[in-house]
Amino acid sequence: MDGKVASEPRAVADIYDEPWVAWTLRTAGTHLHPGRELATVQLAERAIQFGFPAGGKVLEVASALGGPARFVARHFSATVVCLDMNPLMQNALRASAWAEGLGLRCLPVLARSERMPFADCSLDAAWSQDAMCHMDKPAVVAEVSRVLKPGAVFAFTDWIARQPLSQEDMDLLTPLWGFPSLLRPAEYVALLDGSGFELLLAEDRTPTLAAFRPGTPWDQELFEHSFGQRWGEAEVARQRAPGEAWQTLAGSGKTGVGMFIARRR
Ligand SMILES: C[S@@+](CC[C@H](N)C(=O)[O-])C[C@H]1O[C@@H](n2cnc3c(N)ncnc32)[C@H](O)[C@@H]1O
Asked: Ligand 1: does its nearest atom lie under 6 Å from the Cβ of 137?
């Protein structure tokens, strides 16, 4: 079925709830994507090669808990406009940005990526990591294209379909992750090209990320016990399930992560 979801996806706001934030901050930190901070560094290294600017005003599409935003603010001396529709995420981002002295350069904006509250041609670059999978991708790429200045670089990673996904695959992913679709790399390339971007890089990052195995910390059992006491035992299984589903599909070669860098024409 080529990555398209037939059934109603679970609402994204329901996934990223309070226990989810508590679980994720402890288990993954503030970089909510496969490869964690390492993947952010790798995207930055590639983006620099294609002229990602220093000192600019950078849009981050779906900034979540703020790990990438703080990294971009610090390493590119940028002011990052942190767009996300979830106030829980925005609160956590704001706290960590101020704690790191970056409060004036990580600016939370509560909005949907499909309708960005920014003027045309107003931003110097755009960034996103593994979040557009949740969204109406043609609408979001069109909005990024609209708000970027001509010549601006858009660097992002996202979950991709590496093979046509079956209904069974989507039935595993949809309730847990709320994806309306996963694109094949060629579909992303065509979407960028048709939305006013010149493609600079399209790369399947799955093999590199598969090698990243952070392991289990010694105090995981203690953490899960106290998490279970706070949120209920069923929550532990609920929090584990999305990651396990991703491992299953990525491990079988069906899904993965793509890196894309493009320049606004
Ligand atoms: C996997 S997290 C993003 C991870 C983040 N980019 C990172 O690398 O740390 C997904 C985020 O997308 C946000 N989100 C999902 N759909 C959205 C939409 N249509 N508009 C704005 N934010 C959205 C969610 O609220 C959530 O914070």
From this structure: no
- The pLDDT value given to residue 151: 98
Give the chain's length: 265
Local structure of 152: helix, strand or coil: strand
What 164-171 contacts at long range (C-beta under 8 Å, 24+ apart), as own/partner pairs, is 164/1, 164/2, 164/3, 165/1, 165/2, 165/3, 165/254, 165/255, 166/1, 167/1, 167/6, 169/249, 169/254, 169/255, 170/1, 170/4, 170/5, 170/6, 170/7, 171/7
In CATH, which superfamily holds the domain spanning 12-264?
Vaccinia Virus protein VP39 (3.40.50.150)
Residue nearest to atom 3 of ligand 1 (CA): 131
Full-model pTM: 0.92
**CA 211 – ligand 1 centroid, Å:** 24
**Residue 113 CA, closest ligand 1 atom number:** 20
Res. 245 pLDDT band, cuts 50 70 90 = confident
CA-nearest residue, atom 13 of ligand 1: 62
Query: Residue 82: CB within 6 Å of ligand 1?
Result: no
Nearest one of 147, 169, 146, 149 to 159, comparing CA atoms = 169
- When the pLDDT of each residue in the chain is averaged and rounded to a whole number, the result is 91
